[in-house]
Design brief:
The chain is an all-alpha fold and 288 residues long. α2 crosses α3, α3 packs antiparallel against α7 and α4 crosses α7. The protein has one domain. The chain is built from eleven helices and no strands.
Length: 288
C-alpha cells in the first residue's frame, strides 16, 4: 500500500504540470493560477477536516510553518509558472534539482555527512542538466529558467522545514493550515493586482483538477512515509519527471530530442542514486 500511495503521488504531481500549461492556454497567469489553486485546495481540505472531524491544532514553531508556506508558494509560482515560458519537459529537468539542494543544505549548512552515493548524484545531475540544456540554451526564455529554478529552491525549503515538524503532527491538519497559509500569502502579495481567471470554461476544469490532484499527492505522501519510509517514498516520487515527459509528449506534442532524453535519464539516475543510504534505517520523518 505504501508503494501504491507513493506512485499515486508521483502521477498526481506529474499531471499537475501539464494541466498548468493547458490552464495558461485559456488565459490565466502564474500568480492567478497560484491564488485560485490554493483557494480551491483550502476549500477541499476544510471540507475533509469537517467531514472526518480531524483535530485542527497544529503545534509547530512559527518559523517552520512560515518556511513551509513560503516554499509551497514559490513552488507553485516557479515550477508551474515556468511552463508559460519554456517547455514542460525542460521545466521538470530544472525543477528536479531540489533533492540535490537538500543534500547540499545537509552537507554544508547543517554539517551532516554526505555519502558517496549522494556525491555521485551531484555529478550526474550536473552532467544531465548540461546535456539537456546545452544545445537549446540560446533558444530559451530566461524568465522560464529563473522561475523553474526558483520552484526548485521552494521545494527544498519546504522539505527542509517540514522535516523538522514534530513526529506526532497530524497530516490532515498540517496540509490544511499550510494551504490556508499559502492562500493568505497569495492574498497579501497579490493585493491591488487584478486576478486573471481563465477566459474559457474548460480552464476552470483544469484548475479544479490541479487542486484535487495536489491534495491527493500531498496526502498520499504523508500516508506512504510511515509504510515504506521516506527514502522509499522519495524513490517513487523520482518517477514524476518521467510522467511529466510522457504527458508533455502525448498531450502537448512536445518533441523529445535525444539530448533531452539523455539529460533527463542522467538527472533521474542521479536522484535515484542519491536516495541510497546504506545502513540507515527508514524513519517516518527522516526525509521528506
Amino acid at each position: 500500500m505504501g508503494k501504491i500511495f507513493a506512485l499515486l503521488a508521483a502521477v498526481s504531481y506529474g499531471a499537475n504540470t501539464t494541466l498548468s500549461r493547458l490552464a495558461y492556454d485559456t488565459g490565466t497567469t502564474p500568480f492567478s493560477l497560484t491564488a485560485y489553486r490554493y483557494l480551491l485546495i483550502a476549500i477541499i481540505m476544510v471540507a475533509i477536516m469537517l467531514i472526518l472531524r480531524k483535530p485542527w491544532r497544529l503545534r509547530v514553531p512559527l518559523w517552520l510553518f512560515a518556511g513551509c508556506v513560503l516554499g509551497m508558494y514559490v513552488v507553485s509560482i516557479g515550477h508551474l509558472g515556468a511552463v508559460q515560458y519554456i517547455s514542460v519537459s525542460l521545466s521538470a529537468i530544472i525543477f528536479y534539482t531540489y533533492p540535490l539542494l537538500v543534500i547540499a543544505y545537509r552537507r554544508w549548512i547543517s554539517h551532516k555527512s554526505v555519502n558517496a552515493y549522494e556525491t555521485i548524484g551531484f555529478v550526474l545531475a550536473f552532467a544531465g542538466l548540461v546535456v539537456a540544456l546545452g544545445p537549446e540554451f540560446h533558444e530559451m526564455d530566461w524568465r522560464g529558467l529563473v522561475m523553474a529554478f526558483s520552484g526548485s529552491i521552494g521545494a527544498a525549503l519546504f522539505l527542509i522545514c517540514y522535516e523538522l515538524f514534530p513526529e506526532d503532527t497530524e497530516p490532515f491538519a498540517a496540509t490544511t493550515w499550510i494551504s490556508l497559509g499559502t492562500l493568505a500569502l497569495c492574498a497579501v502579495t497579490l493585493f491591488g493586482f487584478e486576478l486573471t481567471p481563465p477566459a474559457q470554461q474548460i480552464g476552470w476544469v483544469y484548475l479544479w483538477c490541479i487542486a484535487i490532484l495536489t491534495v491527493i499527492a500531498f496526502l498520499c505522501i504523508v500516508f506512504a512515509i510511515p509504510r515504506i519510509g521516506a527514502a522509499g517514498t522519495a524513490l517513487f516520487l523520482n518517477f514524476e519527471p518521467v510522467i511529466i515527459l510522457l504527458l508533455a509528449w502525448v498531450v502537448l506534442d512536445e518533441r523529445l530530442s535525444s539530448g533531452r532524453l539523455i539529460g533527463v535519464a542522467l538527472v533521474v539516475l542521479s536522484l535515484l542514486i542519491s536516495q541510497i543510504s546504506p545502513g540507515e534505517p527508514a524513519k517516518g520523518h527522516q526525509q521528506k
